[in-house]
Design brief:
Elements: H1 4-14, E1 18-19, E2 25-26, H2 34-37, H3 40-54, H4 76-79, H5 93-102
Antiparallel strand pairs: 1-2
Length: 108
């Protein structure tokens, strides 16, 4: 059975490392929104690698359910407290973990 730690390590190795302005690494967590963590091209490559590594058929994963994603600009929090209204679902590492454990993509 695939563990949380194994799946996190897989994604952390495959996605580019994010860093703060001071240079400190930002480690990807299970429920972080992947659309806000990495570029769509990088996510697509990880999805393909996930399919190959865990034998999960990703044809059921409709990428249009997750993109386009609206990323708030850096200074937005200074002007408003209201959250960005997303029209798509968040994509997380936990979704990939539960799908790997089930043996198929679970989300639509």
């Amino acid at each position: 059975m695939v563990t949380e730690q194994e799946m996190l390590e897989f994604f952390r190795q495959k996605l580019p490392e994010l860093r703060t302005l001071s240079g400190k690494p930002v480690l990807l967590q299970m429920d972080d929104v992947l659309q806000e963590y990495a570029e769509v091209e990088d996510i697509a490559l990880v999805i393909d690698a996930f399919s190959d590594c865990y034998g999960i058929e990703i044809a059921a994963l409709n990428i249009e359910n997750y993109f386009p994603w609206r990323i708030p600009f850096f200074f937005r929090k200074w002007f408003t407290d209201s959250p960005v209204k997303q029209t798509r679902q968040p994509l997380t590492v936990r979704m990939f973990l539960t799908s790997a454990q089930a043996g198929r993509w679970l989300y639509h």
